[in-house]
Amino acid sequence: xxxxxxxxxxxxxxxxxxxxxxxxxxxxxxxxxxxxxxxxxxxxxxxxxxxxxxxxxxxxxxxxxxxxxxxxxxxxxxxxxxxxxxxxxxxxxxxxxxxxxxxxxxxxxxxxxxxxxxxxxxxxxxxxxxxxxxxxxxxxxxxxxxxxxxxxxxxxxxxxxxxxxxxxxxxxxxxxxxxxxxxxxxxxxxxxxxxxxxxxxxxxxxxxxxxxxxxxxxxxxxxxxxxxxxxxxxxxxxxxxxxxxxxxxxxxxxxxxxxxxxxxxxxxxxxxxxxxxxxxxxxxxxxxxxxxxxxxxxxxxxxxxxxxxxxxxxxxxxxxxxxxxxxx
Length: 328
What we know:
The protein has one helix at residues 17-27; strands at 37-41, 51-56, 64-68, 77-80, 84-88, 96-103, 111-120, 127-128, 132-136, 144-149, 157-161, 171-174, 178-182, 190-197, 205-214, 218-221, 225-229, 244-249, 257-261, 271-274, 278-282, 292-297, 305-309, 318-321. By secondary structure, it is mainly beta.
């Protein structure tokens, strides 16, 4: 692609129709988008980490340094718009109410966004659209959903409640209208899938069940499908790692079905990242900390394959992109 490539870093000049068409249809890029960037933040190496990595969604390869979180923490939640990713809560080491953010287009350290209404530890990938985010705690005794808008920094407010509080971070995915939260531990591994309507504050309702109960998994999404990677299958004290990948259609309530297997099964909150076409699972435990990034094609069932490596092996990491299923 030539100089007319229409992304946010080069939004001037003459664009060739065939290049715009290819980018829109194949790469989901259009004028005003923030590029093909995945961002991963926080985690646990030998201690809690403030590392933020990034990698390209266009070609396989290793992650590079992007900046630092404002406060080092693991098991951080996040939500993202086309422009920015907001990191929410986490363990620092106790449950944190910190919200900080970075912009996809500009590498650098995270800046303060506001505060959660209630501290959330062991948190999850949130759901949302380009305007609004909804995040939930991974605390076993909390079913609280909190919400904020991306365009204006400020504190989160109450959205509603999950059907049941679950530890081990129920994983969020969505299509911009509907958001789902799947799995977790309550206190044992859960197969519950809840859903909400993102535009209307209110409580979650039952969606269906995962094919097997799991905690500490990760999730990715397209505009139609959610994919749930791996996770921990047994009680927390002796949990084993499962290699099963599940999927379900976001717009239709029902149970998840088998999608494929992980090339290297992982648990303990890997980062789930989406490009609409591809889904990525980064970091976690295998059972030792891993720097591995695996990928699948979201709308084609199959096993994951190797994509590249994070800058450092770590567990309890979070991440997102400017191209997940909740965004236009």
